[in-house]
Structure formats: structure tokens, C-alpha cells
Amino acid sequence: MSTTTFKIFRYDPDDGRDPHFQTFQVETVKGMTLLEALYWIMEHKDPTFAFRSSCREANCGSCAMHINGSYGLACRTQVDNLKPPVVIRPLAHLQVLKDLVVDMKPFFDNLKAIKPYLIPGDDPPEKEYYQSVDDRKKIDHHVDCILCGSCYGSCPVAYGDPKYLGPHALLKALRFVDDSRDGATDERLAIVASEFGVFRCHTIFNCQLVCPKDLNPTGAISKLKNKIVVKKFPFMKPFVRT
Amino acid sequence: MRIRYVFKGTKEELKLNPNVGTFSWFLHRITGLLLLFYLFTHMWVLGSANKGAEAFNQRLSAVQTPLFHFLEIGLILVIFYHMVNGLSITLMDFANISSKHKSLVVAVVLVFAILAIVSLSVMLPRLFAPHISTGGLA
Ligand code: HEM
Ligand code: SF4
Ligand code: FES
Questions:
Q1: With a 6 A CB cut-off, is A61 part of the ligand 3 pocket?
Q2: For B11, what's the count of Cα atoms within 13 Å in the CB-facing half-sphere?
Q3: A66 bridge partner residues
Q4: Cα separations (Å) of B6 from A71, A89, A97, A226, B12?
Q5: CA closest to B10 among chain A residues
Q6: What is the ipTM of this complex?
């Protein structure tokens, strides 16, 4: 057992104080995750400390935060791998409700805007929607998003304009555009080609770097841009990769 | 319930995301704006040609001072950075090679360095020691 110093962002809307950092000495053990350390603080030091979590296994996306210079999931981060003092902040670009809990509404509103569900084509099949192994492979790299918000927090464009759809929503849009069962490709491309869509992206690569699921929203945005370009200017087909 | 926006903008963006992409984006924006500023200055100098050779020569000689020569070195570096980084972003999109970001960054730095060394080795002697590079004709 050893002691690790944590500097944690605190803000309570009801106590009248400005946002500030509070230092905690946490008794850490080998194998302890950052999420466990946060629970330790809540149980041993301050029961009013607020943060989100649920699955504890990098599956629900609740516990994303800014950890020592990068965004990530608390439950997937080993305290041993963090250089003390461990500085924890909430996700950026979203309003803070309390401590590490942010208002995710704009994030999910942006997701809803791209219609994150399958829209069938004209004639439904007799039985199930068949998808070949090869077709499924096309969406392998997009389906695993757990909507944690790390990419959104890391994206400077999301700061510049809250209406910008954001890496998470654009990655999800490609997930349906590339899905062989989906019939609304044109509609989807029109949505992401809008004023607040893919062409707002400045190719900064933060979303690709921080994604705890190793997905590539930057690449998804490029691909969508190329699909839009080819749709509008078919002669560009040989020059871009869709 | 009182909620609060604590995030402080671009400055904090650079601090919270100390990644090469954040800095190159920031630098791209700065160099883009500098180029825009240069474009207007450039037109101001060249525009004087409308008022005849005399006016043009006069305005041109106003910017042939050591200070402006020094700024020209900055200008060429700004142009190269903006151009090389801009082309790399475009290539990244067209060829969909975002997963090769690290190699792209290395390529940008290399191309930038080569362009800078070659052009400065031509430019510097002409700017500051014209008698050597042009045999005293300049
Ligand atoms: C040399 C060839 C050039 C190339 C390849 C180039 C490329 C680019 C690219 C790809 C962008 C978008 C970057 C992004 O998405 O963040 C951009 C932005 C910009 N460029 Fe250029 N550019 C060039 C020359 C110029 C010139 C001559 C000017 C000035 C008149 C200029 C001013 C700007 C400005 C102001 C921006 C906006 C920056 C921002 O919003 O962050 N560029 N350039
Ligand atoms: S793309 Fe990655 S970082 Fe972004 S919300 Fe999905 S899992 Fe999180
Ligand atoms: S608690 Fe579910 S992702 Fe961390």
C-alpha cells in the first residue's frame, strides 16, 4: 500500500464557491483503477464528491474525464500508470453540474441529429436483414463506440461551436452509412454535409488520440467528407478514398 | 439548478490537449491570419504601381530595409508551414490515411525543414550580403 496525491476539480453549485482543485491523499494498492480511487475518496474523505460510473469495465461510457493531460475512462486507467499528483477534471465543452459530473445533453442532442438508428431501405426482406461477413467487416471499426464523450471533450471545434455535431455523432453517422442494411445513405450524407457537420472539422486528431476504444473518428470524418465530395462531383472518385 | 461553464477557451484547449495536432492546428490558424495580413500589405505595395513608376519605386524602397528583410525570413517560414501543413491535411483527407498521423507529422517536419534550408540558403546571402552573392551588382 502506498499514498498517492490527487488534485481533483471540485464545484458545488449550492455552496457559493468558485470551481477549484482539492488535494486528496489516497491509499492506493497495486491493481487499483482510477475509478476505485475516486470511490475511495468518496467513502473515506468526502461523501459529497460527485462523479459518474456504472459498469466499471469500459463498457458504459459513464466515467470519461480528463486525467493527467488526456481524456480517458477512469475505470480503464490504472493508478500505477499515472504520474502523481494525479490531476482530474471533468470533460471540457460541457457545463459542469457538480464536481466531475457534466451536463451531457448537447452531446446526446448532437447524436440524435444524425438519426442513430437503422433506417430500412424501400423493400424489406422476407425474413431477417442479412449481412454478410464481409459487409459486417466494413463497420467493425465504428460499432464499438460507447458514447463516453472523451472525443467530444478533446475537440477544439466542439468548443468553438456547440452545434458542431462532434466526432462521436459523425463516427456514428458513418457506422450507418457503411452498414449494408441501412437504406438512408443520402439522407445521412445530407445531414453530415450540413453547416455543422464534417466540414467544420479541422483535422486536429485529438479525438483519434483519446478514444478509449481505439476508434478513429478523425478517419470517419475524412471518409464522410470523401463520400460527400464524390456524390456531388463524381469525377473526383479516382482521387479520393471512400 | 445552477450549472456552470468552466472551460476557458483556446488557451485551455492547448493546455488540456498537449498533442501535436492541437499545436499544428493553432499554428495553422495563426499563420493563415498572418498570411492574410501579408496579402493586404503586399497589395498595398504593388498597388502603388497604378500611380506610376515613380510612386512604385518609392514605396518599394520603403520596404527594402533590414527590418523588412528580417520579416521576410519569417514570411517564408510562415508560408512553408501553412502550405506544407495544409497539403498534409488535404492529403490525409483525400487518401484517408488518418491512421498514419505520426508519419504525416514527421513528413511535414522534414519537408518543411528541406524547403526552409534550401530557400534560406538562397535568400539570406542575397538579403544581407548582396555584394557577395551577385558580385556587387545588386
Ligand atoms: C500555400 C498554399 C496554401 C495551402 C495549401 C493552404 C491550405 C489551407 C488549409 C487546408 C486550411 C484549412 C485548415 C483547417 O481546416 O484548419 C487553410 C486555412 C486557412 N488559410 Fe490557407 N493555405 C494556403 C495559402 C494561404 C494563403 C496565401 C492565405 C492568406 C491569404 C491563407 C489563409 C488561411 C486562413 C486565414 C485559414 C483559416 C485558418 C483557420 O480557420 O484555422 N492560406 N489553409
Ligand atoms: S468515439 Fe471513442 S472517445 Fe468518442 S464517444 Fe465513442 S468511445 Fe468515446
Ligand atoms: S464505468 Fe462504465 S465505462 Fe467506466
A1: yes
A2: 2
A3: A71, A89
A4: 17, 10, 10, 36, 10
A5: A156
A6: 0.88
Residues of B in contact with A101 (CB under 8 A): none
pLDDT digits (tens, 9 = 90+) for B13-65: 889 999 999 999 999 999 999 999 999 999 999 999 999 999 999 998 888 88
**More confidently predicted of B5 and B20:** B20
- The total of structural domains in chain B comes to 1
B99 contacts chain A (CB < 8 A): yes
Domain A105-239 CATH class label = mainly alpha
pLDDT reading at B97 higher than 90: yes
**Chain A: nearest CA to B31, how far in angstroms?**
15
**Chain B residues with beta carbon closer than 8 angstroms to that of A202:** 25, 28
Which tens digit of pLDDT belongs to each residue from A103-134?
A: 999 999 999 999 999 998 877 788 888 899 99
A169, A173, A179, A181 alpha-carbon torsion, rounded to 10°: 110
Torsional sign, CA B61, B67, B68, B69: positive
Each residue's pLDDT tens digit, A202-241: 999 999 999 999 999 999 999 999 999 999 999 999 999 8
In a domain, B138, yes or no: no
Residue B116 lies in a domain: yes
- SS3 call for A65: strand
Pick the CATH number of A2-102 from 3.10.20.30, 3.30.300.20, 1.10.10.10, 3.40.50.720: 3.10.20.30
CATH number of the domain that residue B109 is part of: 1.20.1300.10
CB-based contact (8 Å) between A97 and chain B?
A: yes
From atom 11 of ligand 1, which residue's Cα is the shortest distance away?
B86
